[in-house]
Design goal:
The protein is an all-alpha fold. It contains four helices and no strands. It is globular, with a radius of gyration of 13 Å.
Length: 75
């Protein structure tokens, strides 16, 4: 089976927080495509923003960010 795509970063709550992310940063990045350090999303994540999340309401983006930060650690 051919592998399609790329490996994504660890987006668990603990790792996001350890890397300085918070819910507001994530919601803003999902709208803008720019990460808190000023770097831009790459690869398929930039396509997601360009064709999808930048059109979402602030409430929807906040809900997505809240979901990521409200998850228990993986077992």
């Amino acid at each position: 089976m051919e592998k399609v795509g790329s490996n994504g970063p660890d987006i668990t709550t603990a790792t996001l927080e350890a890397n300085g992310w918070n819910e507001g940063d994530l919601a803003w990045s999902l709208r803008s495509g720019i990460m808190p350090d000023g770097d831009a999303f790459g690869s398929s994540m930039s396509e997601l923003v360009q064709h999808g999340t930048r059109y979402m309401s602030n409430a929807d983006l906040a809900a997505i960010a809240n979901y990521f930060f409200d998850q228990p650690p993986p077992e």
